[in-house]
Amino acid sequence: MSLLSIGFTTPWLLWALVALPLLWILLRAVPPAPVRRRFPGVALLLGLRDEDSVSDRTPWWLLLLRMLTVAAAIVGLAGPVLNPRDAGGTASTAPLLIVVEDGWAAARDWPAQRAAIEAQLAQAARDGRTAALMRLSAPERPVFRAAADLRSRLPGLAPAPWSARPESYAEAAALLPEGAVETRWFSDGLDRDGREDLLSALEARGPVVVHESARPVLALAPPGLEDGMVALRALRAGAEGARDVEIAAHGRDPGGAERVLA
Q1: Which of 96, 61, 128, 121 shows the shortest CA–CA distance to 209?
Q2: Fewer CB atoms < 10 Å away: N or C end of the chain?
């Protein structure tokens, strides 16, 4: 739910504002008048002056301040969000499908990627949309549920120590729902067989936005020997010119302890 440029994550809490007039009446209420009884000892109090005075009714400005405090607390608990959508953007009503390439190549930027997935699910929750998540390391048929529910399961999401098989992309395409969906594809930056077919299948069901890390993916080929020296060959996803890369060799020293050898 949104109001002008402000959205709310839990808009149903705003219904509590309806109870403010009742709260005003309760705060204005005073206890019943005391019963008058004659007490002779009161004569001893004649002539005394009380330095402190208490109003028989709460001042209106204090009531208004209390009401504004309660209203601000209600609005705060409703989770206001400024500019819930990008400028000029329109909210989609289609279910949201999160596709994640969660192999070893995604491990380096996994915290940032998971934060981006959480942001997408938070926006979907504000728009009242359902969402599903498909991991390409082990594709399963997507089950759409409330975006807030899926968001609560993200802490258990972790990258797999292997790469997605080429067959995984064909399996994922076969498991896609028939209806319209909006897809957010979180890529690991590597090109594999079957990616184009899966992308075409997703685009046939609705808009697709691909998220990819700005940092290139690096890998090491198996080491070899050249002139009696260990030679390593580094691989990267894209060619942006020469760059320096630090490589640390881990192994056991002569004493058998694990440490950085070079």
Answers
A1: 96
A2: C
**Domain 96-211 architecture:** 3-Layer(aba) Sandwich (3.40)
Task: Say if residues 131 and 121 touch (Cβ distance below 8 Å).
Answer: yes
Q: How many CA atoms lie within 13 A of 170 on its CB side?
A: 5
The residue ranges of every structural domain in the chain are 1-31+56-84, 96-211, 218-260
* Tens-place pLDDT, residues 16-66: 888 888 888 877 776 666 778 777 777 777 777 777 766 666 778 888 888
Predicted TM-score (pTM) of this structure: 0.59
Exposure class string for 129-163: b at 16+ Cβ within 10 A, else e:
bbbbbbbbbebeebebeebeebbeeeeebebbeeb
d(CA 71, CA 20): 8
Locus of tokens 């529910």: 149
